[in-house]
Amino acid sequence: MTPENLSKLAKTKMPFGKYQERYLIDLPETYLLWFARQGFPQGQLGEYMQLALELKTNGLEYLVKALQD
User: Fold this and answer.
1) Does the pLDDT value for residue 49 go beyond 90?
2) What does residue 13 show for φ and ψ, rounded to 5 degrees?
């Protein structure tokens, strides 16, 4: 987890599905957990979704939220 990754996560939106156009950090934790079980998408999207889940499960999503303002 780098400051650059946090900054990119703050600006990345979900490109498909039920939560399309929602910021990754704003995705429900249950949705991210489903992807953790089923497999995250390949590439940066999957990496940022994993990071979002890690931050949410540790109560650290405020780090990304502060970068959105």
Assistant:
1) yes
2) -110, 155
